Structure formats: C-alpha cells, structure tokens
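Following the same procedure, backbone shapes were mapped to integers, as reproduced here:
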Amino acid sequence: MPQRQLQRYVRLYGTRSERLLADARSMAALGPCFGYDLYQLEVDFLVRDEWASTADDILWRRTKLGLRLSAQERREHDEYLQGIRKESDAAVLNQWIVLT
C-alpha cells in the first residue's frame, strides 16, 4: 500500500486504522477505488463505524477528498452509497417482517 495512503489513514483514523484495514493484505482487498485514494473499504468503514450516510459527509466533512475527485468520481461514489442504503433499508424491512 502506498505510504501516502497509510499516512492519510493514520492521520484521519489514528489507532482505528487497524480496524479499518483489518485483514486487508493487498490493494485488491480494499475494493474498487472511487478516485484519488478513496476505496470501498474506507467508505464501508465510515458508514459502518462512523455512521456516515451521505456522499457529502464522506467526501467533504470526513475525508476532504471531494477536493480531489472529479464530478464523475463523486457521482459514482454517491451511487454506491445509495445502493448501500437501499440494501440496508431492505434488510431492516425484512427483519421487521420476520419479527412481526
């Protein structure tokens, strides 16, 4: 993994970087890249552990990578998050149906 990326993780997440990277032993384990050095693994971590819910929250408030991504890359990132929300909403609905 590039040194710049590791430094960014440590700067942003401190000791939680270990949890972020968990079992990731290769760049392929980080998942698709949304641009610059924002990978699916980091986005999933932010959604799961920091309750980030919008592309703006991740790109502008938490990582500041909105400054580095193109408009197309920001759109692709937003579409990915919308897909996560749909899956999450469906899972919650299914769980509710099972419980009732």
